[in-house]
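Predicting holo structure, zinc ion bound.
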Amino acid sequence: MADISLTPVRRGRLVVDEGYLFEDVGLGTASTPDPTHERVACPVYNVVVEHPDATVLWDTGSHPDAADGHWPAAMYDAFTHEGCRPLDEDLDAAGYDLVDVDAVVQSHLHLDHAGGLGAFAGTDVPVYVHREEFEFACVSARTDAGDAAYLAGDLDHDLNWRLVTGERSAPFRDVELVHLPGHSPGLVGTVLYRESDTVILAGDVGFVDGNVDDRRPMDGSLLWSKRDWFDSLDRLADLRRRHDATVVTGHDPDAPALLESL
Ligand SMILES: [Zn+2]
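Done. Tokens:
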């Protein structure tokens, strides 16, 4: 097993209606016809994965101009982004520099995960992403088809894209990218087989832990395919059981602290 260390990079937080987190929140019943629900703060974070063969950045967060027109106004109204700063500033706060990054792994290409890719434009830093995600993102960003959560302004850069395909791939020793579609078509979980333990950066397979642990789906607007999502939950559960792995979800309030404790 490789000696792999993890450092969370805090990228601000999304403030969202909790109805996005769980599909059943906010639905009335006979006894509670008008339930209350709140807006909750969910962290956006990236991870520096220090591997013997490369320093890998997992996800790149949101574009620093999300509030200033980079994100569509209706999107920003629903997913308000506090503490949004350029990637290099947040990396610096975590003790790293952009030039330290040898490779990027994108869990998927939604706007709160791919907004920092421009920092690697014109470099030869490989950007790993699943082919199905890349294709769907390109269609979505350039046409009215697909999903509004992909922005051309995040993706239209001179980048060294490396497309991975199929169910599993291993860009680095003891680092496996596992296709876990559902939230998006080409989402990959990053499985890190470390000397001390196994960690799965599951990304937005779970927006928060409750989606995964309690099998409670997110709102339908955050599920490209609910059926695929449930299948991916099963595969994630198998991985967790087999390796006694720690699963870190995409925006759980405790995710950055969990990463710091590993
Ligand atoms: Zn996300």
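Residues 110, 112-113, 204, 250-251 surround zinc ion (CB under 6 Å).
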